[in-house]
Amino acid sequence: MDAAVYAVHLTGTDQSFSCAADDTVLRAALRQGIAFPYECNVGSCGNCKFELIEGQVNTSWPEAPGLSEKDKQRNRWLGCQTRAMGDLQIKLRTGDKYRPIHTPVRTSARLVSSRAITHDISEFSFELAQPMTFASGQYALVQMAGVTGPRAYSMSNVGASATALSFQVRRLPQGAGSAALFEQLQVGDAVEIDGPYGMAYLREDAPRDLLCIAGGSGLSPMVSVARGAFASEPLTSRQLHFVYGARLPADVCGQDMLAALPGWPERGSYQAVVSGMDVDAPLPEGLARGFVHDWVDQAYGDQLADMEIYFAGPALMAQSLLKLLIARKVPMDQVHFDQFY
Ligand SMILES: Cc1cc2nc3c(=O)[nH]c(=O)nc-3n(C[C@H](O)[C@H](O)[C@H](O)COP(=O)(O)OP(=O)(O)OC[C@H]3O[C@@H](n4cnc5c(N)ncnc54)[C@H](O)[C@@H]3O)c2cc1C
Ligand code: FES
Fold first, then answer.
1. Which atom of ligand 1 lies nearest, measured to the CA of 149?
2. Per-residue DSSP letters for 149-171?
3. CATH number of the domain at 105-197, please?
4. Fold assignment, 5-98
5. CATH topology of domain 209-340
6. Ligand nearest 78 Cα, by number?
7. How far is the CA of 168 from the centre of ligand 1 (A)?
């Protein structure tokens, strides 16, 4: 039986959308082109908060870190964790940059292959029942059987209308999603995939050299952006610099994927920077030592304001990079990033 469908109205505006009882308020809005603010889609960042003016909702994750006790007292909810139980009146401020460039679709998919990239990062490839159009650098939500809530994973393939998606995922020792992907999911098994989401996608109309910075599992969207940039006609005269931040030499990866791009190395450079080695341990050839934001500042400091900058990875790395880019007066419309919560 199809899920019930409710009407959601944005108070004080002429905007409304319909929301199926089995969809979240955020994703239903985005599917209908509403510029509903969000970032992570998984309950952590708090950007999708709205105030409930009228109607009834339920949340799939009452303890989600994106919502404080004060928010709850003010009848605020997270759009990405909330489902409608009837017609709603909600209050929020929309923002043009959140309007989807491609309509998110929810489809079933099957795992077709997996391969190890490092000791703790693997690439998982899925075949979709319905095509999904996405831009290089975007992410999708993967719902696996037995895991509470979907996991956000960024595509590593070039943005296109695709029936095949690949995700490069880092295994977390205690992670429920990691355990399901790395230990339980078998080739042929089904998942649900919903996407695309995210604003950190390749800007093909930006006439600047590109800097892609990946930390750990941030590899996937940065590889996608690099692949997209090398496939993009308007960007053929642009250089792309790729910096990979890792803890130890054994964690370093990505160079082989870039080396496979036609035009590499004439149009691109790759540097890995490791932060977790003892200061007196000898550094393997080709690697740099330190934190990725410090290395980026040393290597590109004066040039940063003339570059289109993409980054993805742990929140700590993202915050350090943001601080640097602000100090270097890089216009924020040249900066595109995802923090992995
Ligand atoms: C935009 C974005 C893109 C990302 N892209 C990648 C990528 O390309 N590769 C990669 O390796 N990682 C990526 N991540 C991180 C990834 O989504 C997971 O957080 C990470 O893999 C750890 O998941 P886990 O299940 O192993 O760990 P867990 O600790 O089990 O789960 C952490 C994640 O699950 C969510 N969660 C936890 N409990 C609940 C609940 N009860 N209900 C709903 N949600 C819950 C959290 O918000 C968090 O996202 C991305 C994250 C974001 C936000
Ligand atoms: S988008 Fe809902 S908490 Fe991040």
1. 43
2. S-EEEEB-SPSSEEEEEEEEEEP
3. 2.40.30.10
4. Ubiquitin-like (UB roll) (3.10.20)
5. Rossmann fold (3.40.50)
6. 2
7. 13
